[in-house]
Amino acid sequence: GEDVEQSLFLSVREGDSSVINCTYTDSSSTYLYWYKQEPGAGLQLLTYIFSNMDMKQDQRLTVLLNKKDKHLSLRIADTQTGDSAIYFCAESRDTGRRALTFGSGTRLQVQP
Amino acid sequence: DTAVSQTPKYLVTQMGNDKSIKCEQNLGHDTMYWYKQDSKKFLKIMFSYNNKELIINETVPNRFSPKSPDKAHLNLHINSLELGDSAVYFCASSQAQAGAGEQYFGPGTRLTVT
């Protein structure tokens, strides 16, 4: 079955790097995504990675994928207070169905 | 210029009522979705339409009925509302067969059933 898991909470100091981890069980996952949700807001797509890649970098964001261990991480460099939010990882399969299966979300708190 | 919009943003209603939430996207996407986010922030797919055709219908009570009048709109009608229906409902859209098929989400509709 499909299962995506994340740790619930992460606290870092401003300027440090944040690493948010995610594990998934579905080996047929094709795409893995990271979304950000600020309080009272919708979900903002941050980045995604195709399953045949092991790393993707986009400005302050670095996504690492270990397909063997079914482990995905999001690293935010030079974390700012504006990065405080809930971060969701999600997966989908290339079957036309394309519904996202989400993790439970990691609440990132950035302390000044 | 909003890509995916939902109305209303907030909906407070009593048990037993019938209500609708509307969603529109101006991205030219062919697939639209409804997700439910519960009080613990857990997000789960409810429905998906591709070119006005229902392609995903998860285990959702039949009190929930999606309707897609055209590719740009996907509305959600809920009959006989129950306390457990209180949640935030998100609409999303994507171009299903294009690359990663990234889904873009609306701002959400917070439904409170009293």
What does this protein look like?
The complex is a heterodimer of chains A (112) and B (114). By secondary structure, chain A is mostly beta strands. Chain A has strands at 4-6, 9-13, 18-24, 31-37, 43-50, 55-58, 61-66, 71-76, 85-92, 101-102, 106-111. In chain A, strands 2, 4, 5, 9, 10 and 11 form a six-stranded mixed β-sheet that branches. A five-stranded antiparallel β-sheet of chain A has the order 1-3-8-7-6, with no helix packed on it. Chain B has 114 residues and is mainly beta. In chain B, 0% of the residues lie in helices and 55% in strands. Chain B contains no helices and eleven strands. In chain B, strands 2, 4, 5, 6, 9, 10 and 11 form a seven-stranded mixed β-sheet that branches. Chain B has a four-stranded antiparallel β-sheet with strand order 1-3-8-7, with no helix packed on it. Chain B is globular, with a radius of gyration of 13 Å. The interface between A and B is medium-sized, with 23 and 28 residues.
* Helix-residue proportion of chain B: under 10%
- Largest sheet, strands/sense/barrel of chain B: 7 strands, mixed
Return residue spans of chain A where pLDDT drops below 50 for at least 5 consecutive residues: none
What is the global morphology of chain B?
A: globular
| Beta-strand residue fraction of chain B | over 45%
What radius of gyration of chain A results from the CA coordinates? 13 Å
Give the helix/strand class of chain B: mainly beta
Number of extended strands of chain B:
11
- How large is the share of residues in beta strands of chain A? over 45%
Number of helices of chain A: 0
**Gap between N and C termini of chain B:** 34 Å
Largest interface here, residues on each chain?
A: A-B, 23 and 28 residues
Based on Cα principal axes, name the global outline of chain A. globular
C-alpha end-to-end distance of chain A: 41 Å
Subunit arrangement of the protein: heterodimer
Q: Whole-number radius of gyration of chain B?
A: 13 Å
- Poorly predicted tracts of residues of chain B: none
